[in-house]
Amino acid sequence: MSRTVYCQYLKQEAEGLDFQLYPGELGQQIFENISKQAWGEWQKKQTMLINEKRLNLMDPAAREFLEEKMKAFLFEGKDVEIEGYTPPSA
């Protein structure tokens, strides 16, 4: 049985995550307010950021950087700027 959330990223009802994928209070906020689809979009952006900036996820500063980008992307409607990446034109 899938759960539905009002996704703050998509601004509509959508299928929610099956379980909390991120720790702590922020993880709870994501679980309650972000859809599976939006989380998937973020995962793609996050992968591009990690690759582009050669982030070491063992580094607390790198994790903090990603968390800031994630909050801005999921909750503030800010797209992630990937230097040197041109999205395919629709």
Automatic annotation (TrEMBL):
Coiled coil: none
Record-linked PANTHER family: FE(2+)-TRAFFICKING PROTEIN-RELATED
Domain of life of the organism encoding this protein: Bacteria
SUPFAM superfamilies in alphabetical order: YggX-like (SSF111148)
Protein name as it appears in the record: Probable Fe(2+)-trafficking protein
Annotated function: Could be a mediator in iron transactions between iron acquisition and iron-requiring processes, such as synthesis and/or repair of Fe-S clusters in biosynthetic enzymes. Necessary to maintain high levels of aconitase under oxidative stress.
Gene Ontology molecular function terms on file: iron ion binding
